[in-house]
Every structure is written in C-alpha cells, then in structure tokens.
Amino acid sequence: MQLLKELCAISAPSGSEGKLREFIIKNAEGFCDEIKTDSLGNLIARKKGAGKRIMLSAHMDEVGFITIAIDKKDYVAFSEIGDVKLNTLTGNKVLFLNDKTGIVVEKVEKPIKPSDYRIEVLGCKGESLYMVNVGDVATFYPAFDYNNNFISSKALNSRMGCYVLLQLLKEIQTSKNDLYFVFTAQHQIGFRGAKIAAAQIDPHYSITIDSAVYNDFADIDSSVSIDMGPAVKIMDSSTICHPKIRKLLSEAAEEEGMQIQLEVSENFKSAGSAIQTAGAGVISGTVSIPLKYINTPNEVISFNDVKGSIRLLKRMCAKEI
Amino acid sequence: MLERLSNAFGVSGSEDEIRNILKNEMSKTCNNITIDTMGNLICFKKGENGYKNSIMLSAHMDEVGFIVSGITKEGYLRFKTVGGIDARVIVAKKVVFQTNQIKGVIGIRPPHLANDDKSQSVNVSDLYIDIGAKNETDARKYIKEGDYACFDSNFITFGNRLIKGKALDDRIGCFTLVELSKFSYPHDIYFVFTVQEEVGCRGAAVAAYNVAPKAALVVEGTTCSDVPGTDEISFATRLGKGAAISLFDRASYSDKGIVNALVRSAKKNKLNYQFKQTTFGGNDAGAIHLSEKGIRTGVISVPCRYIHSPSSVASVLDIESCQNIVKNFLMSEVDEECNF
Questions:
Q1: Residue A66 is inside which H or E element, if any?
Q2: Per-residue DSSP letters for B159-228?
Q3: Do B75 and B45 have their domain in common?
C-alpha cells in the first residue's frame, strides 16, 4: 500500500514520465534480468524464462496540463493532456513538475473549454517571478486516502497497474515463461507507448492491466462492480479479448479458487487495441480493475481488487502455455 | 528556388510535378535517390565521420487543393476539397487545373439571393468552379471527374522581408531541405519529401518504415494567427520571431532530447526561435514517431499566416532561422541510441 501511495504521488503526465520511470527502475532493479527505456519512454523489464514471450503492460502516465502561454495578468493558459474532465476542474490544485503549486480558476462563467480556465501559479507575479515556462506540465495535486479497503487518489488508473507489475516482479522468483514487464508511456494520448513496445517485443501473448471504468449512476447497469475482484475485459469499444487469453485467465482463476468478473462495456477504449494490431498482430487481452471517477483528482478503487489481480496474473504466468 | 517550389503543382495524391523539380535539385547534392511505392522521394546523403546514426529530415511535398466530383448541366464543376480547407477562404478565388492549365473561379450564389439564410457560414457543397463553359458538353471537352486543381496564385515578395504564395505549407520545408542538403554532416542524413500529408500523413508512415532512421525531424509550415481580433494567447506562432519548435500537439509529443538540442542550437548561434503555443493540429511526426518500433521525432516549423489559402504569408527571417537551427542541430553529436 505504501508503494502504491508513493507511485500515486509522482507527477507523470503523458510525455513527461521521467520521474516515475526512475522511481520504478529503482524498485525493479534486482528483480529482473534486463531493463531498458525505449525511444518513446517506455520502460521494459525482462524476467527470462524458457517458455512463451508474455508481455504484461500497464501505463505510467496520467492526464495533465501543459502551459501554452502566460497571459498579461500572469496566469497560465493551458491545454489539457489527455481526457481531463473539464467540468471537475474549478478550484483544484495542480502540481507542476518543478514542484510549483497551481490553482485552476475560471476565466469566464460556465467554462466549457480549456481556454476558459487559467492556472494561478502560487507566487508567480511579473516576468521576473515567472515560475513556469511555455511547455511546462502539471498534474492534479497528490492526495491519497484509504478507508475500509477503498482508496482514493489522482492517477490511480495508471499507478495501480504499475503497482501490480512491480509486485509481480518481486513475487515471481523464477519464471517458466519469458516475461516482459512493460511500463508504457503516452497512454492517455492514444496508447502510443503500448503500440511501439509491442512491436519491439513481438510477444506470443499480451495482457494489459487497465481500468474497468464505471459509474454507479449510469443509465445502464455496469457489468462489473467495485470490490468484487478483478475482471477480464471481454470487450470495450476498442478491443475484444482473444479467446485464448480469456481461457488462460479463467483457468488461472479456477486453479486459484478465486472469483473474477467479466467486463463488457461500450464506452471506453483501452491499450489492448494498440497492442493487438501492433507489428504482425498479437494475441491480446486485458485484466481490468474496477475504477470510478476516472481522470479526476480523486479516482476510487478497491485494494482487494488490486490484490486479486496480482494473484490471478501470478498464477497465469506460472502456467505452461 | 522557393518561388519555383511554391508555384509548382502538387495536390495530395498527384505530386509528380513538384517531385520532379525536387528530384532534379537533390540529385546535385545526394548520393542516392529513390521513390517508394507511395511516391515519397527519399534522398540519402552519407555522413562524413562514419557515425552509425541515421537521421531523417522530412518535409511534405503535397499541398491542399480541389478535385472535381461532378459537372452540372450548365457546365459548372462540383468539387471536393483535398485536405483541410476553410470554405470561407476559397470563395471567389482563382484555381488552375493540373492537366491542361485550364483556369477557373470558385463561385457562390450572390448575396442578395442568400438573404433567406442569415447565417454567415459557407459550405463547400454550396460552391462550384466556373471555367466559363457553355454547358456540360462544352465543359467535358476540358475537364472530367477526378481532375485536380490547385490555387492559382503567384509567389511574390513584399513588405518587410515577407513572401506570399500558395502551398508555403510545406514548400518552405522542401526548400529548407534542398538548402540543407548542400552541406555535409557527421551523420547519415535521409532527406525525405513525403506525399499525402494533408490527407492524413499517409506518405510519412510508409517512408519512416522504409528508412527506419534512429531519429527524425519534421520541417513544416505552420499556422500563425498573430492577427487583429485574436487574443494574444491564441497566436500559436508569431511572424518574424524565428522558427517555431513544437512541444505537443494532437499527433505527437516531441522527443525532449530533440527539443533541447534545437533550443541549444538556436541559443548557441544566437538565432531567434519560439515554441509553438497551441496543441491543436498535427503533422507527419504523428506517423513517424510511432513507426514500427518507435522513432525519436521532433518538429520545427516556419510560421505561415493564412495557411491553406492562395495567399500564405511567411517571413524570410523565420525561414533563415529555421534553416540555421536545423543545420547546427544536424552537426550535434549523439550517442548510439540517438539521445540528443
């Protein structure tokens, strides 16, 4: 849990995953045979084994903000990085990568687009005191809470996957299969990291750890619920789980004697779509963890679901395929 | 040279004329020239120091334009735009057809008949090209469906070292590559002139796959809205303030090493530069950086006011800044993985 909290506290908007990548390298060293960073910033850690090449991936990056100008009143005009929920912005604190604090304010009543907002950088006044420059990026301010197995924080939708991969790295002593743990970059702006990582590794099988996004107030009942265990993403609007992966995960769950949920949704896209069609094509599927309030400062998940997905994947990776 | 490039025909999918001019120019400076299946022109220049790295410089040859989709009984031409063109910009503009240099004018219903429609918006489907034909039969003597036209606009210089012409996006990039090919570099350089950028960066995807360089730099003409009625934060770029280095747009997040190397190159040589201050839009970098296993990619652009119109305007100062920044950038030393 402490590790997850530390992962969530780091600011890593898409394209600026450096700090988080270094933190993950520090935690992965000693638990893998090879580790490297590619041209886009993906971190690829390998645990060698004689069996099949399996790519396990989760994204590092979170949504954020990029400075496009400082206006005449010393406020930051910004664009969003990734799918920031604009209607939840007002009054939120943000954290720039240079550790400066910002506050999102409304420039106009009823703001509807990023240019209707500004960020006040605390202490920024007059050109000599500009504390951010064009291109500087920020994320929501870290705030991690825990109660009765439920966690709220920014960036959970990425960091829970990183946490799962790091735990698997540590818990799997020797591997039957050739395991590639991939911490991908630039997910929130179109699964860009996942696409080229898959092309480099050319795995026999790929499993992505991602969110099963849902909302208790949606018109249609969701196929998954929070705190009911990890899910296998059968289908979303971008990808359909390969039957082989579905079978492997179902068998692993049975062997482990655990419940899994089956996710079918039509509103969200996931990185499996980019991996599936990378290179000459990859047999691909996704283990999804139910998550509420995506891309807001306070996403909510159950820690039990996270632990369940680690158990499930550990069992699956140990299988002879 | 830039004048010749600007005036040449090269609407997306029909880049023969511009490609021939460029091929001829590049054959004077490069070791090897190929044209791939899509029509990309790939010119290779061997590095001097035997460095292992290869860098791809890319500019697109194609321009936005028009394609005939039908002919009315009265002899007017229905058309579609090729690439993103603002319908407000093209009313009453002259166009010229590729095959036989036939001239035409883009027409719209006169304003006194348009009073039933209070909105100011113009749709391409309301417009037609008038080539002065008597009727359909007469028009068909000269034009058939699928024929291409581009803006009919001559390149001029004016004002304070400014230029005006069509297709400055991206003949400025092509011009820059031609000029840069005259120097020698420590790295192997591929000068790549891509096709079909304006319709979805199709050429670049194929070119990057074939060339498979360690790093790539896209040289573009980009939007510039430092004009009356625009809020200063929405300028995107400013004319005359130097080449614009891209950080992040809809299609790609520029490689930070390349961005830093471009800035270093500008500062060291006291050249003006600016960052592009908008995240809208995208260009060939989107296709290149995700090619196969990934390629470190950056973008540098020359600001163009009234882009995608017959009268794009750019500053010679920005063109020079761009050329010199890139030239010095290409001299920089990099490690085996092409970390700038």
A1: strand A64-70
A2: TTTEEEES-HHHHHHHHHHHHHTTS--SSEEEEEEES--TTTSHHHHHHHHHH--SEEEEEEEEE---ST
A3: no
Residue A261 is part of a domain; what is its CATH number? 3.40.630.10
Contact A303, A149 (CB under 8 A): yes
What residues of B are annotated to the active site? 197
pTM: 0.90
**Residues B195 and B270 reside in one and the same domain:** yes
Average pLDDT, chain B: 93
Which chain A residues touch B282 with a CB distance below 8 Å?
none
Judge if B52 and B72 occupy the same domain.
Answer: no
E-only strand ranges, A97-213: 101-106, 117-121, 137-140, 145-147, 150-153, 178-184, 205-213
Residues 6+ apart with CB under 8 A from A247: none
Q: Are residues B294 and A199, on separate chains, in Cβ contact within 8 Å?
A: yes
* Predicted local confidence at residue B111, as pLDDT: 73
Cis bond upstream, residue B170 (ω within 30): yes
Question: By C-alpha distance, which of B330, B334, B222 is closest to B278?
Answer: B222
Question: Which residues are A102's β-sheet partners?
Answer: A94, A121
C-alpha atoms less than 13 angstroms from C-alpha of A243 in its C-beta half-sphere:
0
Rounded distance between C-alpha atoms, residue B315 and residue B319, angstroms = 7
Cross-chain CB nearest to A39 (options B248, B275, B295): B295
Distance, CA of A254 to chain centre? 27
A304 shares its domain with A219: yes
What CATH number is associated with residue B90?
Answer: 2.40.30.40
Range of the domain at B14: 2-63+166-331
* Pairwise CA distance, residues B155 & B206, whole Å: 31
Q: How many domains does chain B have?
A: 2
In a domain, B337, yes or no: no
Cβ of A38 and B294 within 8 Å? yes
Answer with the one of A122, A140, A158 that is the final residue of a domain: A140
Q: Please tell me the predicted confidence (pLDDT) of residue B158.
A: 96
Taking only the tens place, the pLDDT of each residue in B41-87 is 999 999 987 777 899 999 999 999 999 999 999 999 999 999 999 99
pLDDT at residue number A221:
72
Q: Could you say which of B121, B151, B181 is where a domain stops?
A: B151
Whether B26 and B140 share a structural domain:
no
- Using 50 as the pLDDT threshold, list the residues of chain A that sit under it: none
Q: How many domains does chain A have?
A: 2
Segment B214-273, tens digit of pLDDT: 999 999 999 999 999 988 888 999 999 999 999 999 999 999 999 999 999 999 999 999
Give percent of chain B above pLDDT 90.
85
Domain assignment of residue A193, given as a range: 2-62+144-317
A15 to chain B: which residues are within 8 Å by CB? 248, 253
Residue where a domain stops, chosen among B92, B118, B151: B151
The predicted-structure confidence for B287-326, as pLDDT tens digits, reads as follows 999 998 999 999 999 999 999 999 999 999 999 999 999 9
Residues 6+ apart with CB under 8 A from A228: A259, A261, A290, A305
Of A40, A134, A279, the CB nearest to B277: A134
Q: With an 8 Å Cβ cutoff, are A135 and B275 in contact?
A: yes
pLDDT digits (tens, 9 = 90+) for B248-260: 999 999 999 999 9
Instruction: Assess whether B74 and B143 both reside in one domain.
Output: yes
Whether residue B117 has pLDDT greater than 60: no
- The answer as to whether B121 is a domain residue is yes
Are both A152 and A219 inside the same structural domain? yes
